[in-house]
Amino acid sequence: MLKVLPTLLLSTITCVFSAPILYADDVTPKAVIENYANLVHAEFSDTLVAAKNLQTKVDAFITKPTEATHTAAKQAWLAARVPYSQTEVFRFGNPNIDEWEGSVNAWPLDEGLIDYVKSDAYEHEEGNQFATANIIAGTEPITAELLTSYQEKGGSEANVATGYHAVEFLLWGQDFNQDPKAAGTRNYTDFVQGTECTHKNCERRAQYLKTATDLLIADLSKMEQDWAPDQVNYRKSFLAFEETEALRRILFGMGSLSLGELAGERMNVALLAHSQEDEHSCFSDNTHNDILSNVQGINNVFNGSYQRTDGTTLKGASLAELLASKDKALSAELEQNLNATKATAEDIVKAASNGEPFDQQIAAENSAGNDRVKATIAALRTQTASIEAAAKALGVSNLSPETSDSLQ
Amino acid sequence: MKLAKTLLLGGLILSPVANSNEPSPADRHLSGGATTVLDKSSNAFSLPANNLSILRRDNFFIGNAFFRQPWVIAPSSTSARDGLGPLFNSNSCQGCHVKDGKGHPPLTREDSFLSTLVRVSIPAETAEQKALLITIGVVPEPNYGDQIQPNSITGLKGEATPSFDYEEVAGQFKDGETYALLKPKLKLEQLNYGALHPQAQLSARVAPVMIGMGLLEAIPEADLLALADPDDKNADGISGRSNQVWDVKAQKTVLGRFGWKSNQPTVAQQSAGAFHGDIGISSPLFSSTPCTPTQADCLKAPDGGQPEINQELMDMVTFYASLLAVPARREMNDPEVLKGERLFKQANCSACHIPELKTGVKPDFPELENQKIQPFTDLLLHDMGDGLADQRPDFLATGSEWRTAPLWGIGLIETVNGHTRFLHDGRARNLMEAILWHGGEAERSRENVLNMSKEERAALLRFLNSL
What we know:
The complex is a heterodimer. By secondary structure, chain A is mainly α. Chain A has one domain: A middle domain of Talin 1. In chain A, 59% of the residues lie in helices and 1% in strands. Chain A has helices at residues 4-17, 29-63, 67-87, 95-105, 144-150, 164-172, 202-226, 234-240, 243-273, 287-303, 319-326, 328-353, 358-361, 367-393, and strands spanning 305-307, 313-315. Chain A has a two-stranded antiparallel sheet. In chain A, a hairpin with a 5-residue loop joins strand 1 and strand 2 (313-315). In chain A, helix 2 crosses helix 9 and helix 11 (319-326) packs antiparallel against helix 12. The longest helix of chain A has 35 residues, at 29-63. In chain A, 52% of the residues are buried. Chain B is of the alpha+beta class. Chain B has one domain. In chain B, 27% of the residues lie in helices and 13% in strands. Chain B has helices at 2-18, 57-68, 93-96, 127-135, 213-217, 221-227, 267-279, 296-300, 311-322, 335-346, 413-417, 431-436, 443-450, 454-465; strands spanning 87-88, 116-121, 147-148, 151-152, 161-172, 178-189, 201-206, 244-247, 252-255, 357-358, 372-373, 381-383, 401-403. In chain B, helix 2 (57-68) packs across helix 9 (311-322), helix 7 (267-279) packs across helix 9 (311-322) and helix 10 packs across helix 14. The two termini of chain B are 40 Å apart. The model of chain B is unreliable at 1-23 (pLDDT under 50). At the A-B interface, helix 9 and helix 14 of A face helix 1, helix 2 and helix 3 of B.
């Protein structure tokens, strides 16, 4: 009798204070938030592993520059982007990522900051006194510190010296689009030491490529550590937030990537300007894959699952289930919208695989390509409306980057 | 009991949002009302309004992209972004409006005039010229127009090269501490399109900060006019008056709000005007070439289509410029800052630098409506004395009148832009120098500051830096 009573009392107290809502078995906000942290860590871990593979291939390329080692390095870069692009949904709501993101993914960049450019095919920000700085042709010792010092130098966001796209530029070179199907056409001989070196400064160019890749690894490691379990890091503080706050960060990331960043900045700008200069991965013509991976990242969060690079699937309590417990129809609607968006993104990828890269799909004369891109933009807008509705249903009344009690 | 706490907290978050008329003491730091962001990094001026919903953020980021990316010479494969110049100051908005912050004059011998532009004009004498004062506000100089564009597309020469010489002007506070001000002398050299008109009026202007422009546009006109006192009826020495300027779209004279002399009525017109004059990009609102009739080569150069920026993109840039967030005040409860705030009021700075205003209705911009804001401006013209005069009238503004500069964000300019140059031509090297240049209607306030003790002056500066 005595043993049973406290339990009865406890459950009575719980009933008095809990809101009159029933959760599906095991899917509580806490479980969803914890699973999210696991997803973030898994995705950044995979990102780091893939980047280390890129580092290996870059080192091999620099040691022995050939057509084959060049191709291998480029392929490793492309592969490294797949997990990274899925992590972009974790931005916007999590300030630790926003503060760090510029070092690893800033774009577009004024190429002339880093290396030689074809002068009649180079558009850069007037007044960016470093737009033709050509670090590689200079004499400053190429170190991580030097590269970091050039990042946003003089206040210009076009000065990008580090991160994925700096490495991309070094591996592919400018994309002149002489062959619409082709991406940047830098020759491996730009890295050959000695008399066979093309475009001079091969030693420094190799040094830059290595330094930028190593720095990328270092930066990615930091973020992987910031989300690792059992440490005093951002993950720890994230898991200690009020549930509504954590959910706000999760949903704000989804909504911001979906419309503002992906549909808006990355797709609609390039489309409206019909401009390759606005393409996310303009040197490698990999933008179609960036788009699909961004979309996948949002879906990962909704479904509480992530397919790892090694093929295994991480799965846990999902937003989908949590939302369904509050509003089944809305959850189904959001799922439908996310799937519809993914289908439109797959259309873009298919066209690119058939020799029509993103920068051709946005070209002024290409109405079929434009329509394909517009379809994805429209689908992203539709899903964003559902994300906003989902936030309300989940008790996040103010879906914005900061509320009066968010951390500074 | 965790759930109960969440519910209570949820309630607390809801109340300030529901009743946006009276900010509770806890919200006094929200200088831009609900648009305010807490960022105090170098990005503090470049963020979307905090209350901009995710469903409306795409146009902000699209507008941002067109603000940031370079425009190119026509003809180009990048056809939607060609048409630069033929004469221009910068090839992108961002080039001068670095991180949406404040421009500056050259800081060293090697530094350029990039974020400072020189306006030019001649006095109105004929009837025809006087008519221009209604529709343009100034009479353009015959060869150079209303603005010097130092840069040009290949094959053309830029208009001229401006430079500053400075003369030091010494003074001292009542307590004996000395100060030095820099009086600039503007020069124009390498005039490539003929001699300047003998009565040319020149005025150097740095790029002003871009935060809160939409909010300023949303202040009801009646509220601003109520602050005006052109005949100084209350004999306090302050006689602010509105500038009345030409609205190109409406084809009529309206209240001016933007620009160093309040010569632009709306963000839309200001933005289109800047595209036209600073980058040489035509729009539906300003479809003409930026070349003057005497600049033959300029007139012959190919354009980037008609217009070079279409209305859809123009609207997105205007959307962006209207919805830049205002950063929150910092350290506002620090005793020294509070002391400085009292001194600010005692010196009557707040007579023109109005601490608090309210926005009204603004169609298509619900984020900006009914917000209590702290811009520290009345958007009115004030005679600032001979020292600051540029002798270049603009619409109703005389050669010695200037718009009260908004002070919000002023404490973050150093973080955002890496300098502390203030006033229209950036002559003041710090905030105290800016105060010391205040003459004319502000003379009494300046005297008040000159008489302050060292501690009081420090407190005043701490207050200003908290904005």
